[in-house]
Automatic annotation (TrEMBL):
<dbReference type="InterPro" id="IPR046346">
    <property type="entry name" value="Aminoacid_DH-like_N_sf"/>
</dbReference>
<comment type="subunit">
    <text>Homodimer.</text>
</comment>
<protein>
    <recommendedName>
        <fullName>Bifunctional protein FolD</fullName>
        <ecNumber>1.5.1.5</ecNumber>
        <ecNumber>3.5.4.9</ecNumber>
    </recommendedName>
</protein>
<dbReference type="InterPro" id="IPR036291">
    <property type="entry name" value="NAD(P)-bd_dom_sf"/>
</dbReference>
<keyword id="KW-0521">NADP</keyword>
<comment type="pathway">
    <text>One-carbon metabolism; tetrahydrofolate interconversion.</text>
</comment>
<dbReference type="InterPro" id="IPR000672">
    <property type="entry name" value="THF_DH/CycHdrlase"/>
</dbReference>
<dbReference type="GO" id="GO:0005829">
    <property type="term" value="C:cytosol"/>
</dbReference>
<dbReference type="Pfam" id="PF00763">
    <property type="entry name" value="THF_DHG_CYH"/>
</dbReference>
<keyword id="KW-0511">Multifunctional enzyme</keyword>
<keyword id="KW-0554">One-carbon metabolism</keyword>
<keyword id="KW-0028">Amino-acid biosynthesis</keyword>
<comment type="function">
    <text>Catalyzes the oxidation of 5,10-methylenetetrahydrofolate to 5,10-methenyltetrahydrofolate and then the hydrolysis of 5,10-methenyltetrahydrofolate to 10-formyltetrahydrofolate.</text>
</comment>
<dbReference type="InterPro" id="IPR020867">
    <property type="entry name" value="THF_DH/CycHdrlase_CS"/>
</dbReference>
<dbReference type="InterPro" id="IPR020630">
    <property type="entry name" value="THF_DH/CycHdrlase_cat_dom"/>
</dbReference>
<keyword id="KW-0658">Purine biosynthesis</keyword>
<dbReference type="InterPro" id="IPR020631">
    <property type="entry name" value="THF_DH/CycHdrlase_NAD-bd_dom"/>
</dbReference>
């Protein structure tokens, strides 16, 4: 069993991006600038945004976090987005999800300029991805592709079972792994909460992407010998630790890992790859803008 070390791989990609940034600034250009909009007081969201800021610093980007209370109205948030769309000093931005219930997430996603949508959530970028056109790929699926690629994992003709159908992970992952490319060329099955006898699918999978948000759902007896298992889960469960919680993935590592050829740990697997993909997209947004000037 080989551990897919997302932390180490993300560090390597970050070093490559930092070198590109150094080349950019040595030409007299300002570095890429990523902004994040954070609404409310959700602990996990705050951690993600803090990690994004840290990664920006590490690669030499400018970064801004705009924080708002969860009482912000939809109209106010849309006007913040309008400001970022029109701010020439900002190359890309994200609105951290989830948003409070009184705000329509789709409206917010649609308001982001596709050229600054480094999350890859805008319908234009989703459409480009679906058609195989160039655009911004959503960070988590993109990070998983990079991990598969850097470890040279064979995906050609493999049966990939994706557990979860979210717009952020499951759906785009299914699209990307079925593409005629590497990593890709998989036969993809998407399982979800209404799938009957899910273990029948997972047992026939060469590659499993677990993205359902149910801690330790995937057990050893649901996995075939030699499978590649990617764990996207990051659920906080109360625990007797200094922070008062522990992070659990969607995979029961102790029973699944011994059967795998490759597996991601939680934490230190997919999480760091997601963040580095966002850095990559932001660099790309900056470069595209410079080319247009
Ligand atoms: N919430 C959970 N994952 C993500 C992500 O990739 N982007 C944003 N904006 N919010 C998220």
């Amino acid at each position: 069993m080989i551990l897919l070390n997302g932390k180490e791989t993300a560090e390597a990609v970050k070093r490559e991006i930092a070198e590109e940034v150094a080349r950019m600034t040595s030409r007299g250009e300002r570095p890429p600038h990523l902004a994040a909009v954070l609404v409310g007081d959700d602990g996990a969201s705050k951690t993600y945004v803090a990690n994004k800021e840290k990664a920006c610093k590490a690669v030499g980007f400018n970064s801004t976090v705009l924080t708002f209370p969860d009482t912000i109205s939809e109209a106010e948030l849309l006007s913040v987005i309008d400001g970022l769309n029109n701010n020439d000093e900002v190359d890309g931005f994200i609105v951290q999800l989830p948003l409070p219930k009184h705000i329509d997430e789709n409206k917010v996603i649609n308001a982001v300029s596709p050229e600054k949508d480094v999350d890859g959530f805008h319908p234009v970028n989703v459409g480009r991805m679906s058609l195989g056109e160039d655009g911004f790929l959503p960070a988590t699926p993109f990070g998983i592709l990079t991990l598969l690629e850097r470890y040279k994992i064979d995906t050609y003709g493999k049966h990939c079972v994706i557990m979860g159908r979210s717009n952020i992970v499951g759906r785009p992952m299914a699209n990307l792994l079925s593409r005629k490319s590497y990593p890709g060329d998989c036969t993809v099955t998407v399982c979800h909460s209404h799938t009957r006898n899910i273990e029948e699918y997972t047992r026939s999978a060469d590659i499993i992407i677990a993205a359902i948000g149910v801690p330790e759902f995937l057990k050893g007896d649901m996995v075939k010998e030699g499978a590649v298992v990617i764990d996207v889960g990051i659920t906080r469960v109360p625990a007797d630790t200094p922070k008062g919680y522990r992070i659990l993935g969607d995979v029961e590592f102790s029973s699944v890992a011994p059967k795998c050829s490759y597996i991601t740990p939680v934490p230190g697997g997919v999480g760091p790859m997601t963040i580095v993909s966002l850095m990559y997209n932001t660099f790309k947004a900056r470069e595209l803008k410079l080319k247009k000037q």
